[in-house]
Design goal:
about 110 residues, 4 helices, about 80% helix
């Protein structure tokens, strides 16, 4: 069980990185001349929000319903951006992995 919990924490970390990657991919697929700047701004903004509210060493730790709402918005943003970029199957797969992994994290008090 200890190994499964460690793997789940690794999956959650990769999901967090995938959200940042989905911002970059959406900006890249937009095809505008400002895409690199938009990608950088989006990644910085989401990284800043995660650092303030979502990370284990967050300045403002969220608990209970506020934490759930933040994570739904955070991982939901990744799903929506992948879908909007035309990657419908990847968006669905990412949503399923997020739901499963966060359910396991809640069950295991991670």
């Amino acid at each position: 069980m200890k190994a499964a919990k460690a793997v789940n924490l690794g999956v959650i970390f990769l999901m967090e990185l995938c959200v940042l990657g989905s911002v970059w991919y959406y900006a890249y697929r937009s095809g505008s001349d400002a895409a690199p700047l938009a990608a950088l701004a989006g990644v910085v903004a989401l990284g800043w929000a995660w650092g303030l509210f979502g990370s284990p060493r967050a300045r403002f730790k969220l608990h209970g319903a506020a934490r759930v709402a933040f994570e739904v918005l955070w991982f939901g943003a990744g799903v929506v951006l992948l879908y909007a970029a035309g990657q419908h199957v990847w968006a669905l797969a990412f949503a399923c992995v997020c739901a499963l992994s966060k359910t396991l994290a809640a069950a295991w008090s991670q």
